[in-house]
Amino acid sequence: MMKEYDVIIIGAGVIGSFVARHLMEKKLALAVLEKEDDVCCGVSKAHSAIVHCGYSGKPGALKSKMTVVANENFHNVCDELDVPFRRCGSIIAARSAAGVEKLREKLRCGYENGVKEMYLLNREETMAREPNVKDDIIASVYTPATGTANPWEYCSAAMENAMDNGAELFLNHTVLSIVEQDGVFIIKTNNGNFRCQQLINCAGLYADEINNMIEEPFFRISPRKGEYIVLDKKLDGFVNGFIFQARGEDEPKGVFVSPTIHGNIMVGPSAEDVDDKEDRANTIQGLSFIQEVSQNSVRPLPFDKMITCFAGLRPRPSWLRKNAQGEIEAYEDKTKDFIIRPGKRHPHFLNVAGIKSPGFTCADEIGKYVAGLVFGAGDFNVNEDYNPRRRRRLRFTDLNHQQRNQEIQKDPALGKIVCKCNLVTESEIRDVILRNAGARTVDGVKRRTAASMGKCHGSHCRDRIQDILNEVLQHEAL
What is the C-alpha separation between 316 and 38, in angstroms, rounded? Predict the structure, then answer.
């Protein structure tokens, strides 16, 4: 039996999730198709979690306009979705005259883009703010609005909110083909077929392949791998905010050092163009590069305190054209802007592609923008029951002793610690499983609660998490 919807979104990463969230402001039948077994499993799964302030984008570009607005509103979105967020600030550190000129370029670009607060600091002012910055610093640009958030919960919370407002999510649904018949899109997946009037491509690294199923190829997505190192929470406070490097022409590509929302220190990323869109393997070369280059901006880090490393892939878009011989060739996208546009042959097919940094920052703004395009192309009634607020989570680590005792009286499972490293309770784990867009795997629980994300890597809690998953999901299936 073919399922019918007004709108279908392909991809349940942070962009697809926020597009779904804003589309539910109107009364429409909406489905999200995701090839993985959870949301936030592609580009959105592994990245820097930086909430950019907007000093890097080309003035006038859609990306630049969105970043500044998104940064200013990020705390409001996180409040609505009950997602931890912290404005920790950032500095761009310069160690040479060429680096100082880069700082001046950032200042000019930031002011032109509308960034409200950017400060040029001298060496002493920089070291007062970041005592562990390297001694040979000359100057820096400080931006207090830069922040960090939990990237996994930000994505899952948006999808949960969309589903609370009526959206449907279909996991483990890989799109195999798309055809259009009489103004209706027919989408064939490995788990059934779907029909819709409006189709939105938020497929991340695979956005070009989805486009090519229904439109002429006009862009290509290539993966660029970035590797990261995460250090123990014992180093919390080594840096107060993000520390970037302002590089001269003869200096190696910089990496940043930053705090995470969970209190760890993160270092990275490297940047390596790869061919495989699933290549998330760490390499000795990449990790060695991170360790070496990080010493250009901060005092030597104790990498013996590393608790984990990971790699993420970001989409690198390029344009396609025919050369004089009639062959298709790729060329650089000099604007480096997001690709958000309807298809030429099918105006109700919408590409939302090439969403690399600062895509995480801009996800909510992209969601609003895409929803506006959809609403402008159709006649939909307002969803009078729409609620932008997600039901709040009770986090054991946020409670004081008295509050913990009070809550345990109401729910004894809140007193049963499952993850000792990060103090995650049985009650919290059950909660994230039972919610819309809830966890279905141990890794899904990990990303939503930080359970098994500590120094022991789950050696003491993964089995118990799996037992809770089995128990809850079996009861839910009855």
Answer: 24
Assign residue 268 a region (left: φ > 0; alpha: ψ between -120 and 50; beta: otherwise).
Answer: left
The closest of 158, 146, 145, 156 to 48, measured between CA atoms, is 146
pLDDT at residue 310 tops 90 = yes
Overall average pLDDT of the 164-189 stretch: 97
Two tokens, residue 347: 């105006």
Mean pLDDT, the chain, rounded, equals 94
**Of all helices (H) and strands (E), which one includes residue 92?**
strand 90-94
Contact (CB, 8 A) for 348 and 2: no
Closest Cα partner for 276 from 203, 218, 220, 224? 224
Mapping DSSP to helix (H, G, I), strand (E, B) and coil, where does residue 305 land? helix
Q: Does residue 260 sit in helix, strand or coil?
A: coil
Tokens of 359: 């895509």
User: Which residues does residue 397 pair with via DSSP β-bridges, in sequence order?
Assistant: none
> pLDDT tens digits for 27-42?
999 999 999 999 999 9
For 13, the 3-state DSSP assignment is: coil
The model's pLDDT over 348-390, given as tens digits with 9 standing for 90+, comes to 999 999 999 999 999 999 999 999 999 988 789 999 999 999 9
Measured between alpha carbons, how far is 208 from 214 in angstroms, rounded to an integer? 10
Q: How confident is the model at residue 478 (pLDDT cuts 50, 70, 90)?
A: low
Helices and strands (H and E) in the chain: how many: 12, 23
Residues 6+ positions from 437 with CB-CB distance below 8 Å: 39, 156, 159, 160, 163, 169
- Can you give the pTM of this predicted structure? 0.96
Prior bond of 269 cis (ω within 30°): yes
d(CA 10, CA 351): 10
**Beta bridge partners of residue 223, listed in sequence order:** 315
Residues catalogued as catalytic: 52
Q: Which helix (H) or strand (E) holds 439?
A: none
Q: Are 208 and 216 in contact (CB under 8 A)?
A: no
Q: For residue 104, give every residue at least 6 positions away whose Cβ sits within 8 Å of its Cβ, in sequence order, or none.
A: 120
**Per-residue pLDDT at 331:** 86
Rg, Å, the chain Cα set: 23
CA nearest to 440, candidates 15, 12, 14: 12
